[in-house]
Amino acid sequence: MLQSWTSAQVRAAEEPLLAAGVPLMQHAAFALAGVVARVLRERRGRVVGGQVVLLVGPGNNGGDALHAGAFLRRRGVDVVALALAPRVHDEGRAALLAAGGRVHEVTDAVDGAARAGRADVLVDGILGIGTRDGGLTGLAGALVAALAGGAVEGDARGDGSRGGVVGLGAHGADRPAVVAVDTPSGIGVDDGTVSGPVLPADVTVTFGGAKPGLLIPPAAHLVGRLEVIDLDLPLPDHHPAVVRLADRDAAALWPVPTRSAHKYSRGVVGVVAGARRYPGAAVLATSAAVLAGVGMVRYLGDVADLVVARRPEVVTGPGRVQAWVFGPGVSPDDAAQRRRIEHAFEGVLQRGEPAVVDAGALELLPPTVPTHVVLTPHAGELARLLTDRGHRLTRADVEREPLRWTRLAHEMTGATVLLKGHVTLVVGAGGAVYAQADAPPWLATAGAGDVLAGLMGAMLAGRADDVLDDPTLTAAVAAAAALVHGRAAHTANPDGPVTARGVALALPETIRTLLASA
Ligand SMILES: NC(=O)C1=CN([C@@H]2O[C@H](COP(=O)(O)OP(=O)(O)OC[C@H]3O[C@@H](n4cnc5c(N)ncnc54)[C@H](O)[C@@H]3O)[C@@H](O)[C@H]2O)[C@@H](O)CC1
Ligand SMILES: Nc1ncnc2c1ncn2[C@@H]1O[C@H](COP(=O)(O)OP(=O)(O)O)[C@@H](O)[C@H]1O
Ligand SMILES: [K+]
């Protein structure tokens, strides 16, 4: 499990250590230097003689970079610090100079970018947890925009071609590797927003614990490989801001049958999905539920013949269930499916059956529901859901601030909300947040969401009693389902195209491997 903490939580945790004189910056800088040395060795075969340029901002983030530069200088690395503020960390600057490094005061962004572009490794120490709203501006903003070129995200316009500077957006061995100090500078450290130019990192070395912005898009896309340096900070372990589950966490959440299990004790999942116009969604959602290993799958809808032909294990018609899947391939104007879903929602509200609400069923959601109801919108569907509730939003608005809007949807509906995408966000009871990044982009294919819904329904049916006993469990189960879904895409075809059906067929093997690894 990867946990992350907000800037305020990290500051509060470091305070007593700093007061006791623990040299946190020295520890952080030493570890940072070690990572930079490793990157140098990967790129050029050796550390000695490597060219490192430090981008140095006004605070302690720049101090980390300067001290790391001093360590590297002593290992025979050529280190130049580009000071991007009128005043940079005094001690760090003195340490670098004493070790034989150089400090260059930058006054022109294009010239600064040209110097930076010649490095083997560029160390981004402009801003860390001291970042205020608004991202990088002024000289640092212009320099980063020039360097980042085509890879700039957010509102800023980078021009990587100016003054002969090669934008880092271009791939190639000549381009410096970028190591970000604590966070890529300019990201929203606590919410993952990107409102100005940011240098995309190859490696981010973060201190004490991860920060939410490193896990949440769009900033999460700019982090590269994440290395967490443990500083023994007394962080509140039970209250991380954002969590990313690992395989062993998902395995621990999986409903593994006991020796005395029977099909009803393992759970029955009811699936209301598909229509004559969209029969495939019913097949995919029921297949995923069957292949994820539930006690029984019960299908309700107009394409039962087709579902049973493809999945003879499925039972059709009404009956008791432990959890529901509503909505894949359902249009809200389909009167029969609408009636079935509205009727089933009564069970959800009266008997407390957990439910996955996807696609067309999102429009049939009662005003408020318990947290054991999981909504699974993509960004466009979340925009529509919130627009219907008085917040005019587009898909692009949601993509710019996914955490904010997922949180709002949870607060307004009471449901656990899972926002699908390259990073899948889940917000559940007590505001708990999960950010899973387990899927290859190949998974962005029609029907993949139907498979996720079926798979999650199976998990919820298997853990229905636990979910009702512990309201915080639903979000964890939803995050684990996203993890399994992403892993199944890798199992189906590592590094290549997948089909939704292929992902469903890969579930048994994926789950077996996951459980064996725990
Ligand atoms: N958290 C920890 O345990 C440790 C933190 N350390 C480092 O200290 C950093 C935090 O240092 P600071 O608190 O000095 O903060 P930063 O170095 O992140 O930045 C603060 C400075 O940047 C300015 N600034 C903030 N937002 C700006 C913006 N949008 N545009 C222009 N200027 C802006 C502020 O006025 C202030 O001068 C961490 O990110 C980390 O790198 C390490 O040295 C040691 C351990
Ligand atoms: N860029 C991406 N990288 C990885 N996974 C993605 C990406 N985009 C979408 N996905 C995943 O693919 C699935 C698509 O679901 P959805 O949009 O509901 O499609 P459909 O309705 O056709 O089934 C979701 O699980 C989502 O998280
Ligand atoms: K930084």
UniProtKB/TrEMBL annotation:
Q: Which reaction does it catalyse?
A: (6R)-NADHX = (6S)-NADHX; (6S)-NADPHX + ADP = AMP + phosphate + NADPH + H(+); (6S)-NADHX + ADP = AMP + phosphate + NADH + H(+); (6R)-NADPHX = (6S)-NADPHX
Q: Which domain of life is it from?
A: Bacteria
Query: According to the record, how does the cofactor bind?
Result: Binds 1 potassium ion per subunit.
**Which segments constitute the YjeF N-terminal domain?**
10-239
Which cofactors, by name?
Answer: Mg(2+); K(+)
Xref: SUPFAM superfamilies: Ribokinase-like (SSF53613), YjeF N-terminal domain-like (SSF64153)
Q: Which GO terms describe its biological process?
A: metabolite repair; nicotinamide nucleotide metabolic process
Q: Which residues are recorded as binding K(+)?
A: N61, D124, S185
What does the UniProt keyword field contain?
A: ATP-binding, Isomerase, Kinase, Lyase, Metal-binding, Multifunctional enzyme, NAD, NADP, Nucleotide-binding, Potassium, Transferase
The UniProt entry, under PROSITE patterns, shows: YJEF_C_2, YJEF_C_3, YJEF_N
Q: Which GO terms describe its molecular function?
A: ADP-dependent NAD(P)H-hydrate dehydratase activity; ATP binding; kinase activity; metal ion binding; NAD(P)HX epimerase activity
List of residues binding AMP:
K420, G421, H422, V423, T424, G449
Tell me where in this chain the YjeF C-terminal domain is found.
Answer: 246-514
Q: Which residues bind (6S)-NADPHX?
A: N60, N61, G62, G63, D64, D182, A281, G329, H378, D450
What CDD domains is this protein classified in?
YXKO-related
Transmembrane regions listed in the UniProt entry: none
Q: Give its E.C. classification number.
A: 4.2.1.136, 5.1.99.6
PANTHER family hit by this protein: ATP-DEPENDENT (S)-NAD(P)H-HYDRATE DEHYDRATASE (PTHR12592:SF0), ATP-DEPENDENT (S)-NAD(P)H-HYDRATE DEHYDRATASE FAMILY MEMBER (PTHR12592)
Spell out the family assignment given in the record's similarity comment. Answer: In the N-terminal section; belongs to the NnrE/AIBP family. In the C-terminal section; belongs to the NnrD/CARKD family.
Under the subunit heading, UniProt states:
Homotetramer.
What the protein does? Bifunctional enzyme that catalyzes the epimerization of the S- and R-forms of NAD(P)HX and the dehydration of the S-form of NAD(P)HX at the expense of ADP, which is converted to AMP. This allows the repair of both epimers of NAD(P)HX, a damaged form of NAD(P)H that is a result of enzymatic or heat-dependent hydration.
What is the recorded name of this protein? Bifunctional NAD(P)H-hydrate repair enzyme
List the source organism.
Answer: Cellulomonas persica
**Record gene name:** nnrD
